[in-house]
Amino acid sequence: MRIIAVINQKGGVGKTTTTMNLSHALAQQGYRVLVIDLDPQANLTVGFGAMQKSQPGIADVLIDSLSADDAAIDVRPNLALIPAGDRLGEFEYLRGKGAQYGFLLQKSIRDYQGEKDYILIDCPPTSGILGMNALLAANEVIIPVAGDYFSLHGLSRQMLIFDYVESTLHRQTKKWLVMTRYNERRKLAREVRENVVHYFPNRVLQTSIRETVALAESPAYGKTIFDYRKKNRGADDYRHLADDIIGGRVTN
Ligand SMILES: Nc1ncnc2c1ncn2[C@@H]1O[C@H](COP(=O)(O)OP(=O)(O)OP(=O)(O)O)[C@@H](O)[C@H]1O
Ligand SMILES: [Mg+2]
After folding, report:
1. Per-residue pLDDT at 95 exceeds 70
2. Strands, sheet with 174-180, edge to edge from the N-terminal-most edge strand
């Protein structure tokens, strides 16, 4: 089972869009997928059209030890979702359980009985306790990078955080980078991609996700790009990205 956290402390880089559409692409290929909404904004839950009043979610798993099996709901064929849950915002402020606090998600995934090929985790744009839980639960990380200058700037900070956590805990996670909101006609976007490939050789997934309005529209209808416009280039890009992840296809 591959457990992949989609992380970048920078906001708006395409974490949720990537988690949602990549997980659906994998499910459509026949893989059994569980996706976890670990962001109090609950964008992923809303994007799948699965938001309901007072529904249990990962908040209850982390705070009240609800089992992940009881929190998961089927949202598409082969695809289950653990919604965020109303209280996820509180979790960031709870204190008092010491270091164990960072391992709660890892433990709940270990106890999870569902048989899955992939677990994807959508993270909030912070480097707090939720992101730490995701990092400690995952064995791989996807870092979406948007094609602008500040994204490049934020990336080195993000990588330093990973290095710090990994050296403190003596563990390694495989890191993949994916260019998102990519506009190939923009010189800056191409330069940012070249820089990222230069600094992180064999880490940048081959497919860049192009800026496409349908990708921004689909969540408003509670749909993934495959539900909304399966012939759109956004669907093509996420289908190809799924193949990159399955086969470890990178740019070198
Ligand atoms: N390839 C794309 N083309 C067009 N719009 C996109 C693309 N990827 C993401 N967007 C849009 O950009 C915005 C930010 O994307 P998204 O919510 O996926 O980012 P995020 O990293 O999850 O944000 P946050 O940090 O707030 O959780 C959204 O409005 C989304 O619809
Ligand atoms: Mg998000």
Report:
1. no
2. 73-76, 79-82, 33-37, 118-122, 2-6, 140-146, 174-180, 204-205, 250-251
Q: What is the pTM of this model?
A: 0.97
Domain boundaries, the chain: 2-247
Q: What is the whole-number distance in angstroms between the Cα of residue 252 and the centre of ligand 1?
A: 26
Ligand 1 neighbourhood includes 23 CB (under 6 angstroms)? no
CATH fold label, 2-247: Rossmann fold (3.40.50)
Q: How far apart are CA 149 and CA 147, in angstroms?
A: 7
Tell me if 220 CB under 6 Å of ligand 1: no
- Nearest to residue 31, comparing CAs of 69, 88, 79? 79
What is the arithmetic mean of pLDDT over 145-152? Answer: 88
* For ligand 1, mutation pick of 6, 8, 15, 17 (most atoms within 8 Å of CB): 17
